Amino acid sequence: MSTDKQAWGSRVGLILAMAGNAVGLGNFLRFPVQAVQNGGGAFIIPYLICFLLMGIPLLYIEWASGRFGGKFGNHSTPYILDSMVKGRILKYIGVFGIFTNVAVAAYYCYIESWTMSYVYHSLAGTFEGMSQTGIAQFFNNYVDISKSSTGIPYEAVVFYIACLLLNTYILSKGLKGIEKVAKIGMPLLILFGVILAIRGLTLGTSGASELFPDANAWDGLNFLWTPQYESILDLKVWMAAAGQIFFTLSVGMGTIQCYAAYMNSKDDIALNAVSAGFMNEFVEVVLGSAIVIPIAAGYLGLDWVLENAGFGMAFQTMPYLFQQWGPILAAFAGLFWFGLLFFAGITSSLAMGTPWMGFMKDEFNWGQNKGAWSFGLLILIMGLPTVIFFQEGVFDEYDYWAGTVSLVVFAMLETILFSWIFGMKKGWAEITSGADIQVPIIYKFIIKFVTPIMLIIIFLGSLFKPLNNDWSGNVKSFFAGNGWNLDNGSIVKTVMHAGIKDKIAVATDPAVIAQLHDQMMYLNIARFLLLGLFVFISSLVYTAFLKRRREGRATL
Beta partners for 486? Predict the structure, then answer.
């Protein structure tokens, strides 16, 4: 084990780094879209409840687990969990805490590179004079690496590698490099967000045009913030809200445990967890909801937003909307908006590298440079297929299995382990040790019972999602002896490519059938790469175990 002990330089730096880990592209791109797709105000109530009953408890669990493991010199989830409960199997649950970060970083850096590219194009005036259709097509051409709108061959690959090199270089500087970026990036991110939010809030009807005469920014805000209490009974909305909590807080990934492992044993974690959590919520709920949706609704109308909401909407629309402000303001707005997204992205992607580096340093005595550049190489190998075969669905397959399913599985398992195997008595003592605030005692009950039950329901609900998301109808069908009809979006059906096979069954055009078979092949390749990555990391954990046993450090 390396004796080169790293630590955070200051509490502010730690909190900003933790907030940077949580505050990412999902705050500005995914949250508004999820809200729109799930009824606006109908989404907010379940979202906030999920934050209090699942988000905050998971933050407490992961901060406490990380600091506890750090006392024994462990800085990655396999041996953090191993230090909590002695057992050969449990360390392999911790593999998720490294696997997820590597797999997510592989495609997350690609999205991050989009923002870098769009900063360049905004300042270069590439979007000047383009129609909204033209800008949407620019994005489609960008992700299709065989085409180029700017004369740069394989532009998406170039920016991806540039972005990855920047991440790797900063990671090679260790915690000090991450802390420095967080101290600069987080204030700039909030500043840029406030500037654009003010513009969104003051736009009103001034952006209305002959084509969209009813455009009104306030319609977007009213849609998002008008509560719909009947949504509390809609399980679909609850599923979406819970999924967003995972995505936005970066829980279930292993990064929080890794960061917390570098704290001193008596450092406060309760206040730190709450501070980082609420900073993330401020950025997401207040700033995130006040930019894309209001500005888009202010120029294109709420109906257009409802019809076209998607992850790429910001890239396909915002440059056009900025052009309405004149070329100079458009350049600055593009810099602010895509610069904001870049800072949000890089503070999160840097966090994803720390579990791998912590593990390789602890177990194989790798230094910062070797750990960082090996991580960069691994990301390059895993990530290039998401860039080159983006339109074949490899990107989405990574996001589904690594960025969605794995998060839920790991969070569910670590919560059960913390509350029931490690034990709530020891767990609560770890959460409250050194706390500068009094943690509400109700959270002892929530962490032990409510959070695990919610996570189990979410997992089972995703595993056996009913046809058309009709829970009541399928429950009646089941008890009537007609079985349970699975939706193609369920995990079980997704494993079997049910959606693609249904399309093949009804297709008559040989070219379409061939294209669908090709798509299925690419998805299988993506799954093979992900499975190979998981097996590779598991083998490293096993090798580390053998090394520890030889050195007399193994726990059985």
Answer: 466
pLDDT at 331: 93
The Cα 285–Cα 31 span in angstroms is: 8
Residue count (the chain): 556
How far from 519 is each of 384, 400, 516, CA to CA, in Å?
17, 16, 5
Residues 6+ apart with CB under 8 A from 92: 78, 538, 541
Is residue 256 a contact partner of residue 55, using CB atoms and an 8 Å limit? no
Say whether 205 sits in a helix, a strand or coil: coil
Q: Is the separation of the CB atoms in 203 and 215 below 8 Å? A: no
CB 295 within 8 A of CB 109: no
Q: Are 467 and 485 in contact (CB under 8 A)?
A: yes
Q: Classify 11-463+497-551 by CATH class.
A: mainly alpha
Q: Which pLDDT does position 11 carry in this prediction? A: 58
Block means of pLDDT (10 residues each) for the chain, length 556 residues?
50 57 72 83 87 95 95 93 84 96 95 94 93 86 74 81 94 76 76 84 88 90 82 74 82 90 84 83 83 87 83 81 88 87 84 93 94 96 94 92 90 95 96 89 97 92 86 84 88 94 95 95 97 98 94 78
- What is the CB-side half-sphere exposure of residue 273 using CA atoms within 13 A? 31
Biggest alpha carbon distance in the chain?
77
User: Tokens in use for 40?
Assistant: 């606006």
The answer to whether 155 touches 117, Cβ cutoff 8 Å, is yes
Helices 217-225, 41-50: inter-axial angle, 10-degree rounding: 50
* pTM of structure: 0.89
What are phi and psi for residue 507, nearest 5 degrees?
-75, 145
What angle is formed at CA 329 by the lines to CA 326 and CA 330, rounded to 5 degrees?
A: 75
